[in-house]
Amino acid sequence: MSIIAWTEAMSVDNPALDKDHQKLIRMINELDQSAPDFLELFNAVLDYTTGHFDREETHLDAIGFPGLDAHRVQHDDFADQVAAMLKEYRERPFDAGDTRLKDFLWSWLKGHILIEDQRYAAWTRARGG
Ligand SMILES: [Fe+2]
């Protein structure tokens, strides 16, 4: 999986949340599917992601973003999908060349930051924030 960089197009105009996103992207870039402690590293990314979701939802709640409930559903859905994949992995670890877990993180996060997170960024900008 190619390395993806954070770009201005991903900015949500909130320095703390932008930093979270940058760190997440960095962590996923560094995830090595063939590392012996891959699952541990993967779990570290998940922990950070969960913390980030909490911070983001707290922020959206604080600014009164009307799409918060729908946004929260997206976050919860991510957690459910990852849990299902992890269960599968634990039952029968994927081959080293099978990058499903990392690919999922990538595509989900990239789409989420570029599309879903941009909804609250646009809403904030429209309100002059
Ligand atoms: Fe989000």
Describe the 3D structure.
The protein has 129 residues and is an all-alpha fold. 72% of the residues lie in helices and 0% in strands. The protein has one domain: Up-down Bundle (Four Helix Bundle (Hemerythrin (Met), subunit A)). Helix 2 packs antiparallel against helix 3 and helix 3 runs antiparallel to helix 4. The chain is built from four helices and no strands. 15% of the residues are buried. The chain binds fe (ii) ion (FE2). The site of fe (ii) ion (FE2) has 6 residues, from helix 3 and helix 4.
- From the 3D coordinates, which CATH architecture would you assign? Up-down Bundle
Into which percentage range does the β-strand content fall? under 5%
Give the ligands present.
fe (ii) ion
Number of domains: 1
The first-level CATH class is given as Mainly Alpha
Q: What coarse outline follows from CA principal-axis ratios? A: elongated
Number of helices: 4
What structural category characterises the helix and strand content?
A: mainly alpha
| Biggest β-sheet description | none
Instruction: Please estimate the helix content.
Output: over 70%
Instruction: Work out the radius of gyration.
Output: 15 Å
- Average pLDDT rating: 91
Annotated CATH topology: Four Helix Bundle (Hemerythrin (Met), subunit A)
The count of strands amounts to 0
Low-pLDDT stretches? none
Alpha carbon gap, first and last residue: 36 Å
